[in-house]
């Protein structure tokens, strides 16, 4: 039987209920994380929970757990569900209260919820690559906060799905920001280019891992804005996230990226990523 974490309780899935006036449900007033599980172990757990703590701080939400407290609580759920490979979704809302846009009374308790999912690494796609389409970035100006408000991202991903693509790469005017649920990289003449960390993108944990692998392999990692044209003329394009890892984009708006094959820099980063998974466990 599958368990869901509701505050500090592990409850059966069918008993996991959310109050009708929870602010996450009514306003999208909350934050979340999605963490990968490899071999029953939460990959890069600390940076994920640190980002959750940061997101909470940015929206003035009081968290009652420390990073270590969260890790312990969520690992219990993973063990209870016997997850070997998969992911865990964790969200915290500002709690249940009468509907009013302004924050509720201080005494309102945040609501924590987490559930797991079991699945393997996307080996076939990692080897063959995916296609992507470009679309205008219509989201708010605090994309650095991993907030529950994902309507812009949802619409972008749906646009990709409608166009038989795996990801939608967003741009503000001419500047490429990030994917609907991933960070984006253009590779040109052996160097990696990606949007700098600021309010226009989520500071991806996978992006951090890729940066450290690039440094290790002495591949130039340029945190600079780049244009749609630059993306379209790149030798290789990658999107990265907790779920898709280092994912090659071999087709963009129905045109091949570079020679249409997974490129050599991408392959090196993928190799480094697999090693990093083993290292992170130690
Ligand atoms: N999303 N940018 C956006 C908008 C994202 O939603 C994500 C991840 C990323 C990559 O972040 P990370 O490497 O820390 O996963 C970038 C997760 C996977 C999700 O929403 O499920």
Automatic annotation (TrEMBL):
Domain of life, source organism: Bacteria
Organism listed in the record: Staphylococcus hsinchuensis
Family, similarity comment: Belongs to the class-IV pyridoxal-phosphate-dependent aminotransferase family.
Keyword Cell division attached: no
EC id: 2.6.1.21
Record field: catalytic activity: D-alanine + 2-oxoglutarate = D-glutamate + pyruvate
Keywords: Aminotransferase, Pyridoxal phosphate, Transferase
Residues annotated as signal peptide: none
Complex formation: Homodimer.
PROSITE patterns named in the record: AA_TRANSFER_CLASS_4 (PS00770)
Protein name: D-alanine aminotransferase
Task of the protein: Acts on the D-isomers of alanine, leucine, aspartate, glutamate, aminobutyrate, norvaline and asparagine. The enzyme transfers an amino group from a substrate D-amino acid to the pyridoxal phosphate cofactor to form pyridoxamine and an alpha-keto acid in the first half-reaction. The second half-reaction is the reverse of the first, transferring the amino group from the pyridoxamine to a second alpha-keto acid to form the product D-amino acid via a ping-pong mechanism. This is an important process in the formation of D-alanine and D-glutamate, which are essential bacterial cell wall components.
Transferase recorded as keyword: yes
Cofactor: pyridoxal 5'-phosphate
Gene Ontology molecular function, alphabetical: D-alanine-2-oxoglutarate aminotransferase activity
């Amino acid at each position: 039987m599958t368990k869901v974490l509701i505050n500090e309780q592990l409850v059966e899935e069918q008993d996991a209920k959310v109050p009708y006036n929870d602010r996450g449900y009514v306003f999208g007033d909350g934050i979340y994380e999605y963490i990968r599980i490899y071999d029953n172990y939460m990959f890069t757990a600390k940076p994920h929970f640190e980002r959750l703590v940061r997101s909470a701080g940015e929206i003035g939400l009081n968290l009652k757990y420390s990073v270590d407290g969260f890790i312990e609580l969520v690992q219990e759920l993973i063990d209870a569900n016997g997850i070997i490979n998969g992911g865990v979704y964790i969200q915290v809302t500002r709690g249940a209260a009468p509907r009013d846009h302004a924050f509720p009374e201080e005494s309102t308790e945040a609501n924590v919820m987490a559930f797991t999912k079991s699945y393997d690494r996307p080996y076939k796609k990692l080897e063959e690559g995916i296609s992507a389409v470009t679309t205008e970035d219509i989201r708010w100006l605090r994309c650095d906060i991993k907030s529950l408000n994902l309507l812009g991202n949802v619409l972008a991903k749906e646009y990709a799905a409608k166009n038989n693509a795996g990801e939608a790469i967003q741009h503000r005017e001419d500047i490429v920001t990030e994917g609907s649920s991933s960070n984006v990289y253009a590779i040109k003449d052996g160097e990696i280019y990606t949007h700098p960390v600021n309010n226009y993108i989520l500071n991806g944990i996978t992006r951090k891992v890729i940066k450290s692998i690039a440094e290790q392999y002495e591949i130039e990692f340029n945190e600079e804005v780049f244009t749609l044209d630059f993306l379209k003329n790149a030798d290789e394009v990658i999107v990265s996230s907790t779920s898709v890892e280092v994912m090659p984009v071999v087709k963009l708006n129905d045109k091949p990226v570079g020679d249409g094959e997974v490129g050599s820099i991408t392959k090196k980063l993928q190799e480094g990523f697999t090693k990093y998974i083993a290292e992170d466990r130690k």
